[in-house]
Write a structure and sequence with these properties.
The protein is of the alpha/beta class. It has helices spanning 21-29, 73-80, 113-123, 128-142, 157-168, 187-203, 214-220, 238-245; strands spanning 4-17, 36-39, 44-58, 62-66, 88-94, 97-100, 175-179, 206-210, 223-228, 231-237.
Length: 246
């Protein structure tokens, strides 16, 4: 199977029900989804997070999404990861997708580390048998030791990061979707994490990463999409983007 991503006129609207005047403006200001307010029927207002976006990625492509907060980058990642269905247009994704967007989703702070590994792996759509097979490897990589049996709420921030990272990177994927470059734990663990991230990126057929780190985009990506107000204002090679911005 040829690994690819194709978007044709993709639009994504977030509906806001029965919110008016100042309350509406405040709600939109607090939503980091980009786009513009659109009028709807039946007292429904929508935020157009993505507006008529089209592009194609093929094997070997590493796309960097660039834009200010609220420009639509995260909405684009969630559409690519299958979190949201587009309101309009067509999207086709051929290949197994692994997304590293909101890794804290699915965490149960009262449950043990092991149970949270299972919960997070299920959120990654990893089959139950595969989860159990890889459980010892995930626990070992996290370096949590006996704490793996303790409630998640007893963990330090670094321990939480190590567990979520270990699950998120447990399986290689054809298509890797990332929101910023992930780092986890203390300095020693971060070295190990960086090596694993580099390996995942190297082995993935397609990578899409949203980042404010321009040096990272230049180092990792061969294509760039600049987003503004939910629209793609530039899509092309990293070399062309660098020429236009320097």
């Amino acid at each position: 199977m040829t690994i690819s991503i194709s978007l044709n006129g993709v639009t994504l609207d977030y509906a806001i029900y029965s919110v008016r005047a100042q309350s509406l403006r405040n709600a939109v200001l607090n939503m980091a989804v980009g786009g513009k307010l659109m009028k709807g029927s039946n007292d429904v207002t929508v935020v157009r997070a993505l507006n008529n976006v089209s592009f194609t990625l093929r094997e070997g492509d590493r796309l960097g999404l660039v834009g200010h907060n609220g420009s639509g980058k995260t909405s684009m990642l969630k559409v690519l990861a299958g979190v949201y269905e587009p309101t309009g247009g067509r999207i086709r994704v051929d290949g197994r997708v692994s997304s590293m967007i909101s890794m804290s989703i699915g965490l149960d702070h009262d449950a043990s580390g092991i149970q949270n590994i299972r919960n997070l792996a299920m959120m990654q759509q990893i089959p139950k048998k595969e989860i159990e097979r890889r459980l010892p490897e995930i626990i070992s990589f996290s370096e949590l030791g006996a704490y793996i049996h303790m409630p998640f709420k007893t963990y330090s921030a670094g321990m939480m990061a190590r567990l979520t990272f270990s699950v998120a990177t447990a399986l290689n994927a054809d298509i890797l979707i990332m929101d910023e470059w992930i780092s986890a734990g203390d300095a020693e663990f971060q070295q190990k994490a960086a090596a694993r991230m580099a390996s995942l990126v190297d082995e993935a057929k397609i990578v899409v990463i949203a980042s404010h780190d321009m040096s990272l985009i230049k180092r990792v990506c061969n294509k760039v999409m600049v987003m503004e107000g939910g629209q793609a204002t530039f899509f092309g090679s990293t070399e062309e983007w660098i020429r236009l911005t320097t």
